[in-house]
Specification:
Length: 146
């Protein structure tokens, strides 16, 4: 292989790896990495059930009901550049709809582990909370009010 071709290939590889590093430095999720979204019922015991419906532009996950305190539902998907999942929650005559994951978020809202993001949402009597920790989820921050 000639020196010119070797130098050109080296330059192209250097540009490629530099682009990947810059892409990761922006704290954006990698394409095709896995996301797991949890929705947990942390409402008072013996209260009405939590009902919710989650969907994206491509996937309708249907309605789900969490009937008791501590019960959870989760779903997984792979990230594409425009991935957006939202959920609409109903409880005790109140409701709230919000994005549970958006690939366009410029900062991380979810816990990150190698090759995966974990979004742990928790419904409480005063609103919806999110944890950036996982295993176990801790440090919940209130994101939405009913």
């Amino acid at each position: 292989m000639s020196y010119t071709i070797t130098k050109t290939l080296f330059t192209l590889l250097l540009i490629l790896f530099s682009s990947i590093t810059i892409y990761r430095a922006r704290a954006r999720p990698l394409i095709f990495s896995l996301v797991t979204v949890f929705v947990e019922n942390n409402l008072p015991k013996n209260s009405p059930p939590l009902v919710f419906h989650c969907a994206s532009g491509d996937d309708d996950l249907g309605n789900h009901t969490l009937t008791h305190h501590g019960q959870e539902y989760h779903f997984e998907f792979s990230i594409l550049p425009k991935t957006l999942f939202f959920c609409h929650l109903w409880w005790n005559g109140k409701d709230v709809a919000f994005d549970v994951f958006n690939a366009r978020w410029t900062t991380h809202h979810c816990a990150r582990v190698p090759g995966e993001e974990i979004c742990y949402w928790q419904a409480r009597d005063d609103g919806i909370y999110l944890s950036k920790d996982y295993n176990p989820p801790t440090n919940f921050i209130k994101k939405y009010s009913w």
